[in-house]
Amino acid sequence: MIEDPDNAAELKRHSPFGLFPLLIDDGKPVLETSIIIEHLQLHHPGPTTWIPDGDEGLRVRFLDRFFDLHVMNNMNVPVASKIRPEGTQDDYGVARAREKLHVAYDWLDANLGEGPWAVGEHFTLADVESDGVIWIPHRPQPPDFKTAIARCRCRTGASTLFNNACRWTGRSAT
Fold it and tell me: Residue 1 pLDDT more than 50?
């Protein structure tokens, strides 16, 4: 557990802010989800091509960044505000983040395309990034995202994540 001082010290030895995710591969630290996935694809390829070559790969990387910068960053603002000490919440920042989040959702609804996954016919890094945002219980759930939730939950890992998150948050898994 991270509360263990030895574990926390080891984590900070590899990650300057003591944050996850972190992979130690052959003694070398690899930080951040996107980079870990690229590292694994390059050094330990498996049956899934997380980042295709060419223009499709550029689109995957773009969506990965879009989800991280324009969805996750804005989703974190109300959470961070809520856990601040009494009297230090940022109502203006929360309202602005919600506005930006709705802009991001509108853009995604208009630009994700018709394929079964975020970029075409195969599960990619873009879907990994989107998996983390579609089940989060504190955000509004636009109707167009219901398809994404159903699609995502068909993946074993995503289904496990979703069901565990529902148990942890008390949200219904349906």
Answer: no
Comparing 28-32, 62-66, 85-89, 133-137, the range with the smallest average pLDDT is 133-137
Do 64 and 34 meet the contact criterion of CB atoms below 8 Å apart? yes
Q: Is residue 68 part of a domain?
A: yes
pLDDT tens track for 45-79: 988 888 999 999 999 999 999 988 998 888 889 88
Q: What is the DSSP string of 78-116?
A: HHHHHTSPTT---HHHHHHHHHHHHHHHHHHHHHS-SSS
Bridge partners for 23 per DSSP: 30
- Largest pairwise CA distance in the chain: 51
Position 33 scores a pLDDT of: 86
- Distances in Å between the Cα of 156 and the Cα atoms of 38, 117, 131 are 21, 15, 12
> Which DSSP letter does residue 117 get?
B
Closest CA to 77 of 143, 138, 161: 138
Same domain (yes/no): 38, 97 = no
The pLDDT value given to residue 56: 93
Residue 174 lies in a domain: no
The answer for residues whose C-beta is within 8 angstroms of residue 24's C-beta and 6 or more apart is: 14, 30
